[in-house]
Specification:
single chain, about 230 residues
């Protein structure tokens, strides 16, 4: 156990340093990611860490894609696209909890919930970044009226497609790595992850003052709860 924890710490530290050097995360994000990554690696091994890395790397690429255009519309991530500790906690708190519970109980349900929560976080980021970039007329999820890009609760066709793709990619990778047992389970986990983003949009539409971090937590929580039920 001690050796596994040491390896987890070293691998995660190296990844955090590299992510910071490449401008993916801020210093606080590196610290938050170190804690989350170490817990996930120690609990679910390198397979769990690879799922987390997919979200971090994929989310960063999408955040920086078309960054200047996003800046012109006021929808770009601040700090040059670097994600901070608050973002890491909001997107990974549920995943870390699921990973720890999976290690403590040995139940597959928590591993499934872990994959779904990361899938939801990745899907939500994909929807936001792609939707803000390619959709000129996003619509409010509750009324379908046109709103400005970046509005809480707004959805778009490009963003929705990107979110579905991210959810499916996460589940497919988890299946390949052996975290999910069958293609059917992967499909259901993908659906759960996508439903988490629907929950995120509905919460944003009804309670815009809740804040992005809180809705991110709820997004991943919805996915983590639904996935074991579906499977």
């Amino acid at each position: 156990m001690a050796l596994q924890l040491l390896i987890a710490l070293l691998v995660t530290a190296a990844f955090a340093v590299l992510a910071y050097a490449l401008g993916m995360i801020s210093r606080s994000g590196a610290l938050g990611g170190l804690l989350a990554g170490t817990a996930i690696y120690a609990s679910l091994g390198p397979q769990g860490f690879v799922i987390l890395a997919l979200f971090v790397v994929g989310g960063s690429i999408l955040t920086r894609f078309g960054y200047r255009r996003k800046q012109s519309t006021g929808t770009a991530q601040d700090q040059g696209g670097r994600r901070g500790a608050r973002n890491a906690i909001a997107n990974c708190a549920v995943a870390v909890s699921c990973a720890l519970l999976a290690a403590a109980t040995g139940l597959d349900h928590f591993t499934i919930a872990f994959v779904a929560s990361i899938g939801a976080a990745f899907a939500d980021t994909s929807e936001s970044e792609i939707g803000q970039l390619f959709s000129r007329s996003p619509r409010m999820i509750t009324t379908l009226r046109k709103v400005q890009p970046g509005t809480d609760g707004a959805i778009s066709l490009p963003g929705t497609i990107a979110g579905l793709a991210a959810a499916c990619l996460t589940a497919t990778l988890a299946l390949t790595l052996g975290l999910l047992e069958s293609p059917q389970t992967a499909l259901l986990v993908s659906i759960a992850a996508f439903l988490g983003t629907i929950g995120d949009s509905l919460i944003g539409a009804h309670f815009p003052r809740v804040g992005n971090e809180a809705t991110n937590v709820l997004c991943t929580l919805v996915a983590a709860v639904i996935a074991p039920i579906l499977t």
